Amino acid sequence: MQMNRVWRKTAFHVLVGIGALICIYPILWLVASSLKPNDEIFSTATSLIPSRLDFSNYAKGWKGFAGITFTTYMKNSFIIVILSTLGAVVSSALVAYGLARIQFKGSKLLFGCVMVSMMLPHDVLIIPQYVMFAKLHWLSSFKPIIVPQFFGVPFFIFLMMQFIRTIPGELDEAAKMDGCSKYGIFYRVIVPLIVPSMITSAIFSFYWRWDDFMNPLLYLNKPSLYPVSLALKLFLDNDSVNNWGAMFAMSTVSLIPIFLIFFFFQKYIVEGISTTGLKG
Q: Which residue among 90, 146, 199, 252 is buried most deeply as judged by most CB within 10 Å?
């Protein structure tokens, strides 16, 4: 019996290890390719060990294009991500609190509209949004990417609503007896208790905005405004030799913030999602 358990555990860990290696192999290949000379990247594509380490790809990639260094692209990405995440989390928390705790006429209809908006494909909204932002003269700026986040994100609203519903209503009544208004209850009672769901929403917002390619492609016409996701495309030039090494190097650099966010806040992702849908 004991030998069977040992064999089962060994087989389980071997299978999990193989699965993990398959999942992480593209990242390992990306990092290894960023350290290879440009002419060896695809000629030795099956090997993860470079014949010689070539760190010049990072220097060439960071130099950027037309006098615009990769520092500018990183700065633009952080501006978009930080402001968008702040707006999405704060506005979604306010909307979620209103729909979950405040009874008013039409609240169920509004909640239904939020749920329906989650099902709309992004492609359906591209043309009307572009026309609206063009009439507002917001093109070639960060506004079309950042401002809509300050009006709530349906998925985050749903996530926080489910979290708020696990909080006993007696806490609201106790705070009301102490003289708190609805806004006081929100800031002093609700917000401290929904921190896991807010951090989970912030992490998802960070990932989505950092990887977003379509919106910057539509609304940003100046290279000096490009974020990292759009700047990486500049390494591929149909009129000359593609600088794959520099592109892979900067792609590796662009993964660092994502790994850091996941490493430091992964427990909040699990806690925020695992408690969603539970009712107290």
A: 146
Alpha helices in the chain (DSSP H): 2-34, 56-63, 70-101, 107-119, 122-135, 143-146, 154-164, 169-177, 182-185, 191-193, 195-211, 214-219, 228-231, 244-274
Q: What is the pLDDT of residue 117?
A: 85
Q: What is the CA radius of gyration of the chain?
A: 24
Instruction: Return the axis-axis angle of helices 154-164 and 244-274, rounded to nearest 10°.
Output: 30
**Model pLDDT, residue 275:** 52
- Pairwise CA distance, residues 122 & 110, whole Å: 20
Single-letter residue type at 216: P
Q: What is the pTM of this model?
A: 0.84
Query: What pLDDT sits at residue 51?
Result: 76
Helix (H, G, I), strand (E, B) or coil at 243: coil
Residues 51 and 54: their CA atoms lie apart, in Å, by: 9
Rounded Cα distance, 175 and 24, in Å: 49
Angstrom distance (rounded) from CA 273 to CA 237? 42
User: CA angle, 172 as apex, 171 and 178 as ends, to 5°?
Assistant: 90
Spatial separation of the C-alpha atoms in residues 129 and 143, rounded to whole Å: 12
Q: CA-CA distance, 225 to 216, in Å (whole number)?
A: 9
What pLDDT, in 10s, does the model give residues 206-248? 999 998 999 999 999 888 899 998 988 887 765 556 778 888 8
Please answer whether residues 49 and 270 qualify as being in contact, where contact means their C-beta atoms are separated by less than 8 angstroms: no
Please give the structure tokens belonging to residue 260.
């850091």
